[in-house]
Amino acid sequence: MTTAAVARAARVLRADGLVAFPTETVYGLGADASSDTALARLYAVKQRPPDHPVIVHLGDPDRLDDWGRDLSDDARLLAVSFWPGPLTLVVRRNDQMVSDVVTGGRDTVGLRVPDQPLALDLLREFGGGIAAPSANRFGRVSPTTAAHVRADLGNDVDAILDGGSCSVGVESTIVDCSGSHVRLLRRGGVPVDRIAAILGRPVDEAADGEGPAAPGRLAAHYQPRARVVVVGHSDHAIVEAQRHLDGGARTGLLAPGPLPPDLPSGLEIVGAPPNTDEYARSLYACLRDADTRGLDVLVVVPPAAQGVGAAVEDRLRRAAAS
Ligand code: TXA
Ligand code: MG
């Protein structure tokens, strides 16, 4: 169903404007993927270096053939299996459809069909592809609510569709299907073992620093202002937190709940998510909350690395990198 807000947002896109919209992973900052004028504005607002490619969002899995070329059987299989959903496929681009501005000059394009009703309404009403990075300034924490987008981008965005909190909470998994075998470029909403199960073989992981630099692959990314210190276990977290508190630092804790009973006095509880899915959903809001509280240090215990926990662990490692 097309609401007035979706119809208006589609008009904004057609006029080369920028629309922030919810996806199941994080909010995207959308522009008409076939308009170089709109894309130039997108890069300017995002403060993103021109050689960093953006993902093109499509309203229907069938559109894969319009935007990609020489598609492998693996790419088709993954699209059929996971779209709509939090998986981005990097494939060889159809030069007629995809401009150098979207791909940072690469021969490939990242494509995905998001699993979020408002996003799909917008994509179908607009009709074309929507280029959308996460709707935060370059290098900052991704937004998972419309309020986060407003706080980051203010008047630089022409319309914001409010779909509430994102249901997954971390970005899409990215796999490169442009070569002879599928490679993992970024952990995310779809666990790698589910991809391997569909393909019937293990998926190689590209090492950090391998290939062209891309924001999701930079060691230091997804960073709040507070210093993030990752520790393996709640017992260590208490020792670590006490050390920072003793040094006079305002210190917070994010750890899987329930938390142990004897926490140091003065330690601020930023989050104690009861399970891994909830940890992923609340992760970026917690990192933002650490800054809102004016914390100097956030001590973090990651969730178990199964399922979406592996992506959470990856983002926390990058948030902690100096
Ligand atoms: O969940 C998501 O993927 C969100 C929502 C809005 O869809 N989008 C997102 O976009 O996280 P962004 O721009 O923050 O991260 C996109 C990542 C970057 O690391 C970029 O380099 C990579 O995708 N990427 C896009 N196209 C690529 C390509 N052709 N080759 C390699 N990496 C690509
Ligand atoms: Mg991003």
Please explain how this structure is put together.
The chain has 322 residues and is α/β, with parallel strands linked by helices. The chain folds into two domains: 4-205, DHBP synthase (Alpha-Beta Complex); 227-320, Threonylcarbamoyl-AMP synthase, C-terminal domain (Rossmann fold). Helices cover 34% and strands 16% of the residues. The protein contains eleven helices and 14 strands. It is globular, with a radius of gyration of 20 Å.
- What's the CATH first level of the largest domain? Alpha Beta
Question: What is the quaternary state of this protein?
Answer: single chain
CATH architecture of the largest domain: Alpha-Beta Complex
The count of β-strands is 14
Low-confidence stretches: none
Here the CATH topology of the largest domain equals: DHBP synthase
How is this structure best summarized?
The chain has 322 residues and is of the alpha/beta class. 34% of the residues lie in helices and 16% in strands. The protein has eleven helices and 14 strands.
Q: Which terms summarize this structure?
A:
Rossmann fold; DHBP synthase; 4-stranded parallel β-sheet; single chain; 322 residues; binds magnesium ion; 10-stranded mixed β-sheet
